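note to self — DONT lose this again. spent like an hour looking for the file last time. sequence + predicted structure for the chain T wanted, 407 res
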Amino acid sequence: MLRTHFVLFFLLLLVACTPQDGQQISPFEDYRPGMDYATLNTQSMGVEGMDNQGLQNNQIPQQRPMAVGKVAILLPLSGQNADVGQAMLNAAQMALFDVNDSGFELLPFDTGGTRSGTTRAVNEAAGEGVRLILGPLVADNVQSAGVAARRHNLQVIGFTTDSTKVGGNIITLGILPNDQGKRIAQYAANTNLNRIAIITTNDSYARAVISAFETEAAPQNIIIVEKQALRSAADASRIAQMLKAQEGSFDAIFMPIGNPHLANMARSLAENQLGTNVKPWLGAGLWEDSAIQSNPLMRNAVYAAPSPQQRTNFERQYRSVYGENPHRLASLAYDATALSIMMLRQNKGTITRASLMNPNGFSGIDGIFRFQQSGLPERGLAIHKITAANRTTIVENAPSSFVTAGR
């Protein structure tokens, strides 16, 4: 089993914000088991070059209790997704030096991307006396980790987006579609887009986003005037022509879909004079894709996704250390490692499920989040507008706390 011990040598720089009562792994890929896209009161961790609340650059923090203990991180360091696993391990190592404590050890274990490898890794980690399991990456492996960890009375913070694998001793940091649907409905209400036409594909990601959108839309007095399923290029032409005939009945078009369906639908809508200059196009995290954002027809379309503010600094630092851009999931390993250090320090070397359920939430690379009792995360997202090829701007900021988010 590939395993390396990394020991921290510096004081923990972790500042609490003031609480105010074949298979390509992608963060916004098709939402199904095995396709996982995977971030502290709002408590924040420090990335070198980022300013934390109450901590000026070069200011020496007050001495804090030491975070004593071992934490395991389970990643596919060999096998199909070894490149993703290595990028996440790189990010976790960054956290060790940016958010650190001399008593903390992170023990990486290679799952090989398999369930049997995951079970073996958990058992070995438990034998090393770890206090928490971080990872693994994909849904079925997270489930296996939970089963094995339960025998050792350990909590698991996985990176899965499959909500059916979460619960009991398993929670997840995955960026789920539910928050995206909810946030874009809030944006629609804020901008008086009260009548919505929905175009969807028949997959669980789209269904989850739309279900959350509809749940949030009802109390916001948003009406779903049309919902059409997109299965082929021929469907795209038919749907666009039908919507053109009903143009006066809706204010915006919501399409939580990715390519190639989105490219076909965008072309058909533009051909029927329903481009973004005529009707706003609303989307979700799948639109954080260079192929989508480079499509000139997508200019001025808006979507819900994590704020890039802290991530930009993280990516810059990652490139300076490793000489390449981080995988989209890498920030989750960074945040999970930082969260572990904070939990061990605050809870005298123990980590329990109750200690992770802080209602104020946490602030990480991808913005604020908190864990719900179900084990699923709730996140504060921003609204992005595509302004040019692979360029976006924020038209509604992500909330800075769950109080300002109205939750």
